[in-house]
Design brief:
Structural class of chain A: mainly beta
Mean pLDDT of chain B: 83
Number of helices of chain B: 1
Strand content of chain B: 35-45%
Order of helices and strands of chain B: HEEEEEEEE
Oligomer: heterodimer
Strand order of the largest sheet of chain A: 1-2-8-7
Largest sheet of chain B: 4 strands, antiparallel
Low-confidence stretches of chain A: 29-36
Largest sheet of chain A: 4 strands, antiparallel
Largest interface: A-B, 52 and 44 residues
Helix content of chain A: 10-25%
Distance between the termini of chain B: 92 Å
Strand order of the largest sheet of chain B: 1-2-8-7
Radius of gyration of chain B: 20 Å
Order of helices and strands of chain A: HHEEEEEEEE
Low-confidence stretches of chain B: 5-17
């Protein structure tokens, strides 16, 4: 059921391959981290009544997430604290560091038929789900032939 | 009276075995070691607590989780960066780690594992004698 909803495309497969390769030969990770997409990862889908955005933002305080909708562009921004000790601690060594930390911001361009007042958002299991209603007038109607 | 039987649950191999050849997402992790043990943190967004599977077998640690999103009926995806419903990652532990005393916490899609070092492996200062 999942694959039909979020079909696997060649790019995401390549991305996965690249990450796995990097995983095995990770002697000198890039200065910008693992280079896989932005944070949070986004899945976007739509129904006839709404546009659904799933932002995969684990470990973020939902109160600190800023959501803005401006002229059809939805922006998600916030900050994710690092769990890596900041101070130079000689007794600790970091073996793997892949998790994103710091400020983030991602934008989604929404379709024209959305209702800017019909936005709801909730955060569960590290996923922020934003649901944007489509305007009533844009919803499919059956037209009766007289 | 007819008795209505609940459909039998299908016999399934343990997830850890079944998932071996299945395509999965690799959750990003941080691993930090200090003198008393190792702390591993992993991002598993979309996984509820009951869909997380942690397994330590001999010296292999397996982290698995199933993504369960509350997707409305009839939704069509237009863009997907998380395109698989399952995370899986396997680590090999070393023998000085005490696998009996692993502590796990799972909050907001972030798993924190604390794997202490065994008593015998706790730090000791080794005196170097100079002759």
């Amino acid at each position: 059921m999942y694959r039909t909803l979020f079909p696997r495309d060649i790019f995401s497969e390549l991305d996965r391959l690249q990450r796995e390769l990097q995983e095995s030969f990770d002697f000198s990770p890039s200065i910008r981290g693992t280079g896989r997409g932005g944070f949070p990862a986004l899945n976007v889908g739509g129904t006839r009544q709404s546009v659904e955005i799933f932002a995969f933002a684990p470990g973020v305080d939902p109160k600190s997430i800023e959501l803005n909708l401006d002229r059809g562009v939805l922006s998600i921004s916030g900050e994710r604290p690092s769990d890596i000790p900041q101070a130079e601690d000689k007794k600790q060594s970091v073996h793997i560091r892949e998790r994103f930390a710091g400020r983030f911001r991602r934008v989604v361009s929404l379709p024209d038929d959305i209702d800017p007042n019909g936005v709801t958002a909730n955060y569960r299991d590290g996923v922020l789900r934003i649901s944007v209603k489509r305007r009533e007038s844009a919803q499919p109607r059956r037209i009766i032939v007289e | 009276m007819n008795e209505v039987k609940a459909p039998e649950t299908k016999a399934q191999a343990p997830r850890a075995e079944r998932g071996a050849d299945e395509a999965t997402l690799l959750p990003p992790v941080n691993v930090v070691e200090d003198s008393r043990g190792i702390t591993l943190t992993a991002d598993l967004p979309g996984v509820p607590k009951d869909a997380l599977l942690l397994q330590i077998e001999a010296d292999t640690l397996t982290i698995e989780g199933e993504v369960r999103l509350n997707v409305p009926e009839g939704m069509e995806a237009t863009h997907a960066e998380v395109s698989l419903p399952r995370y899986r990652r396997v680590f090999t532990l070393s023998k000085e780690l005490d696998t009996e005393k692993v502590g796990a916490e799972f909050v907001n899609g972030v798993l924190t594992l604390r794997i202490p070092k065994a008593e015998f492996a706790q730090p000791r200062r080794i005196e170097i004698s100079v002759h």
